[in-house]
Structure formats: C-alpha cells, structure tokens
Amino acid sequence: MTTLTLHNGVEIPQIGFGTAAIGQWQQDDSFVTDTILKAMAVGYRHFDTASVYGNERALGRAILQSGIPRHELFVVSKVWDTEQGARTADAFQRSLERLGLEYLDLYLVHWPVPASTRQTWEAMESLYDDKKVRALGLSNFRKADIEQLASFARVRPAYNQLELHPYLTQQELVQYCQFHKIAVSCWSPLGSGTWSGVAATEKPIADPVIVDLANQYGVSPGQIILKWDLQQKRIVIPKAEKLEHIVANFSLWDFSLSDDDMQSINALNRNHRFGGDPATAHESNKKIRVPD
Ligand SMILES: NC(=O)c1ccc[n+]([C@@H]2O[C@H](COP(=O)([O-])OP(=O)(O)OC[C@H]3O[C@@H](n4cnc5c(N)ncnc54)[C@H](OP(=O)(O)O)[C@@H]3O)[C@@H](O)[C@H]2O)c1
Q1: Is residue 292 part of a domain?
Q2: Engineered SS bond to 60: which of 48, 100, 152, 214, CB 3.0-4.6 Å?
Q3: How far is the CA of 115 from the centre of ligand 1 (A)?
C-alpha cells in the first residue's frame, strides 16, 4: 500500500475510504459496519469519518470485528463547527469513545470558523502533546485561514482536506499547501456522493474527456480521476458502497497517465463546488447538530 509521509514523519496511506453518508447521512447501523468491513477485506486501512457524520460507532464496530491490529489502521475524525473552541477537547474525547479507540491518527478542524480557530487549535495541540492524536490537520481551510492559524500555531498543520475533483482543481491552494508541507487530501474526489443531490451525469465521472481516457487506458472513469490525484501526491478518500466501486478505487497501480492526459484533466477545471463554500459554510453549519 502506497503511503505519503506527513511533515512530522507519520505515514498516511494515500488511498483512504470515505464514510460520509454510507446508506444515508448520519446512518450508524450494521449496513455501515458491513460496508466498512468489505473495504477492509479489499485492503483499505485508512478511514475518514467525522463527529457530524454520525457513524463513528459503526466504524468502531468494524475496527473491532475486523481483528486488524490498531497500528495497521489510520483513523481520521474531525471537530464540527459547534464543537470548536472551549468544547473541542470534550468533542475529541466523545469521538474516541464512540470509535472505541485510545488514540486517533489524524484529527481535523472540519471547517474554518475564524473566530474560534485559535482556541480550537490550542486544544488540539494539547491532545497532540498528550499523544492522543498522531497528527493535526485542517479541512476546507483557504490560504487566509491557514495564514491566520500560522500566526499562532505551535504545531504546524500536516494535512488539509479540500473539495477537489476535475471541476474544482484549486491549483493555487494546492501549491500553497504542498509548498508549506501540508499534505492535500481530496474530498468528493469523484464529484460527490448522493448527499449532494447532484445527478451522475453532471459529475466529472461522466465528462467525455474522462470517459475517453477511461476507454483508452482500459479502466473506469473513477479510476482515471483518482489516478490523476495520486500522481500529484494527493490523498484520496472516495466513498463507495458497491463492491465493484470499492475494489476499483483501490486498484490504481497498474497504469499511469501521461503528462498530456494529466493536463487535459487539469483543463476541465470550472471552479465548480458541489459542496459548501468555506467562506460562508460556518453560517449554515451552525444549524447542523452532531448526534450523541
Ligand atoms: N471535509 C469535508 O468537508 C468533507 C465533505 C464531504 C465529503 N468528505 C469526505 O470525502 C468522502 C468522499 O466524498 P463523497 O462521498 O461526497 O463523494 P465521492 O467519493 O466523490 O463519490 C461517492 C459517490 O461515487 C460513487 N462511486 C464510488 N466509486 C465509484 C466508481 N469507481 N465509479 C463510479 N462511481 C463511484 C459512489 O457510489 P456507491 O456508494 O453507490 O458505490 C457514491 O455515489 C466522504 O465520504 C467523506 O469522508 C469530506
């Protein structure tokens, strides 16, 4: 399994498994556990969850049932907007309890809430000092948000998870992060899950350029997009329920895209977001509750 090394030396598997809305948003039952167990059987060891996904217990049950040694797994969770600031240390503890774990591999600020960033990050730094988490990171942070954090951070962020797919390539932000040794991870790498309500025909997996490349390389459109990310040293966290998708998204090592083909995918960018905009998301996120 290919890994990237974060700036503090921690290794992260480059392909992770997204868990948002397996079944439905905030579903936390045996269907979620069974889907994650299927991914583990295929070989995934890196799992991306969040307190607001409401499925940390289902992931915890899969970890327990799999029998996979804890040190072979890479578990990521995130602090939701309503848990930022004075509540962050408690929120982390609740995530650990729901997951049934002693530590996390990576803990992220889910969305920037600039008024709370300092207090949130300082709480996360204490968790890092106490070895409750092996690396600290961000999600949806823009350049200005990272600069704000850098003005006081004692522990530098090791990772930033961004909406990133061929219709939203975020090239400047990616370059900025990679220059500052912040690993870039792509959420909704295939153009989002059913939670977004976006028709499959509107997603980059249906784009004629991607479909043509898939035919040319003898792989699926999803594999073309994920390979485009991997070749640029980005982490991917596709979510899949169908076994054929779970397998395909983990089978990316037998081909490589030419420079010209990489450029033709880059050229598909239209700065189009399927999910929230970090400039405004904290307004609506306030209304979304983290289930107990
Ligand atoms: N940090 C954030 O703010 C944030 C926001 C959103 C998401 N995320 C994370 O990113 C993960 C992935 O994002 P996402 O779930 O929105 O979208 P995604 O991974 O881009 O797309 C998931 C959708 O694509 C389908 N699919 C999976 N593999 C496929 C393949 N090889 N070919 C064709 N279709 C395929 C899935 O179908 P089936 O399920 O039917 O197989 C599902 O409908 C989430 O699960 C979550 O962990 C983070």
Answers
A1: no
A2: 100
A3: 30
